[in-house]
Write the structure tokens for this entry.
Amino acid sequence: MAGKETTITAHWKGGMGFETVNAQGITVRMDPPSESAYLTPMELVLMALAGCTGMDVADILRKKRQSVAALEIQARGVRADDHPKVYTEIELVFLLTGDGLAPEAIARAIDLSAEKYCSVGAMLEPAVPIRTSFRIIPGKEGSA
């Protein structure tokens, strides 16, 4: 195996529940919605995508000297009715607040994340279309 290795361990917690832990000891509990109020594996996929692209966009906009006070990403996934019930479409809406934000810079940052930097999106995109949009939220700096 070439490249950087990642190791996760999943511990069965009974029923269909699992608690996963990474090498740093950070845990996430997963269960199907019928058994508990924990996260589902498919919710974690959307969370991973939103977090991955969010990190990229925030970093790119910082380098472009855009004064982002708040960034929120709303992720919506539509799943197939039949097993394995994969996502058939994903939509990401970026909500940004800040002084003098340039729409062109935001659009370019989102494109760069999708085309070059976000590894989660790169893994998902061949199998599921990912649509993106953004809105600049007017208001006081720091409120979104």
